[in-house]
Automatic annotation (TrEMBL):
Species this chain originates from: Tetraodon nigroviridis (Spotted green pufferfish)
Transmembrane segments: none
Gene Ontology BP annotations: carbohydrate metabolic process
PANTHER family: GLYCOSYL HYDROLASE (PTHR10353), LACTASE_PHLORIZIN HYDROLASE (PTHR10353:SF38)
Family: Belongs to the glycosyl hydrolase 1 family.
GO molecular function, one term: lactase activity
Gene3D superfamilies reported in the protein's UniProt record: Glycosidases
Protein name: Lactase
Length: 163
């Protein structure tokens, strides 16, 4: 199994000229991704193109409370950043899928394959359900209450059910 790598959301060279607010960032990010795929793609099988788009767009541009801290006092800047983020991800994904996957065999997740759908559902239950289920239903997700004890992962003081 290969290593995981996340492409940085805003390396210095990509932050020039208004960073994610500038429309040229999409092509520049694609070029940056191309360099990474070309140099590291044979060693990395799972890629995350961009991480936490809401945090970068809203908290990084609208409120300046997170990196990159680019408050422009524009009521639309964070929406522009979000749009650019989506476009940059799309370009990087298609580049990876079309140019590199045939030879590097990276594994993009397929929503049509039941095993990938199941993996996504398990991820959501452990990532979001861990906190949301107790709030909305009073207990952990059934998936967690089944898998954790079965794998011997329950720690001292951690038991099911929640109450």
């Amino acid at each position: 199994m290969g290593s995981n790598i996340s492409l940085p959301a805003s390396p210095a060279s990509l932050s020039m000229d208004s960073g994610w607010e500038n429309t040229t960032i999409v092509q520049r990010f694609r070029d940056y991704a191309d360099v990474l795929f070309r140099h590291f793609g044979s060693q990395v099988k799972f890629w995350i193109t961009l991480n936490e788009p809401f945090i970068v767009a809203n908290l990084g541009y609208a409120y300046e409370s997170f990196a990159p801290g680019c408050r422009t006092f524009s009521v639309v800047s964070h929406r522009i950043v979000g749009k650019q983020y989506i476009a940059a991800h799309t370009e990087a994904w298609h580049l990876s899928n079309d140019k590199y996957r045939p030879t590097q065999h990276g594994i993009p997740r397929n929503p049509c394959k039941q095993e990938d759908v199941g993996a996504a559902q398990r991820y959501l239950q452990f990532f979001i359900g861990w906190f949301a289920h107790p709030i909305f239903s009073g207990d952990y997700p059934e998936l967690m209450t089944t898998i954790i004890p079965k794998q011997g992962l329950a720690a001292d003081g951690f038991s099911f059910p929640l109450t």
